[in-house]
Amino acid sequence: MRLASRALCGAAGAAWRDSFPLGGRDVARWFPGHMAKGLRKMQSSLKLVDCIIEVHDARIPLSGRNPLFQETLGLKPHVLVLNKMDLADLKEQQKIIQHLEGKGLKNVVFTNCVRDENIKQVIPMVRGLVESSYRYHRGEVCERPLMFLLDTPGVLAPRIASVEMGLKLALCGTVLDHLVGEETLADYLLYTLNRHQLFGYVQHYGLDGACDDIASVLKQVAVRLGKTQKVKVLTGTGDVNVLQPNYAAAARDFLRTFRSGLLGPVMLDRDVLRGAPLADP
């Protein structure tokens, strides 16, 4: 189903949408059934560890974090690793840290695991936190090896707080695209890029200009990538062959290009940092 056209293509100075239509979407179904099992396993494993390393996407440092950690940590040391810092716009990094400190998160590390950037800070931080905690001097603690890592799969919170938070999670690849809808997700990405004045997609795809109409953008992307097919259209004078853009394929490429960093770094939580509450479902 095509998304409604807004006919707002044109120069980068155009009046972009100031909100994204969120109503009518069932966020509850974005929580896959297998995650419930993983969440239970994670909860049962908490009693076995002395320090928790929470890994979250640096593009959404504030939204989408699992409240399970805040509820069950107790006195356990806790390190928040914000990975993929190379894909995040961190001009307001200090504000992010202050916001997290206000939530009780004192140990935050920004990393890029692909290039090992800042990764070496994690183990010394964990060791220092464990050694200063009351659990470190238990009779069974062994130093060979010094540290065991108990890895768990990433899981969402059972209830995503809002539709917009769900869209942010999906843009970062946490929620499967087909659960949200690839064209809907591409539209939210376009809305976000334009609102943030990030027009790298225009140059990347060689478009005529920045645009706020996802149908128009996807049509141009499909044509540029050769993702079209000939279809017969019945007219008053007979059948006519026309090229039909593959909107779904164009949406997938748009999302893939964003996730690989080719459209530039972005901070999806800029609205939260500036005090705007996430929209309710």
What does this structure look like?
The protein has 281 residues and is an alpha/beta fold. The protein folds into 2 domains: 134 residues, Rossmann fold; 98 residues, Conserved Hypothetical Protein Ylqf, Chain: A, domain 2 (Orthogonal Bundle). The protein is 36% helix and 11% strand. The chain is built from 11 helices and 5 strands; from the N terminus they run αβαβαβααααααββαα. The strands form 2 sheets. Strands 1-2-3 form a 3-stranded parallel sheet, with helices on one face. α3 links the parallel β2 and β3. α7 crosses α10 and α9 packs across α10. It is elongated. Belongs to the TRAFAC class YlqF/YawG GTPase family. MTG1 subfamily. One of its GO terms (molecular function) is GTPase activity. It comes from Ailuropoda melanoleuca. It is a peripheral membrane protein. It is found in: Mitochondrion inner membrane.
Descriptive labels:
single chain, 281 residues, Rossmann fold, three-stranded parallel sheet, 11 helices, 36% helix, disordered N terminus
Task: Give a short summary of the structure.
By secondary structure, the protein is of the alpha/beta class. It contains eleven helices and five strands; from the N terminus they run αβαβαβααααααββαα. The protein folds into two domains: 134 residues, P-loop containing nucleotide triphosphate hydrolases (Rossmann fold, 3-Layer(aba) Sandwich); 98 residues, Conserved Hypothetical Protein Ylqf, Chain: A, domain 2 (Orthogonal Bundle).
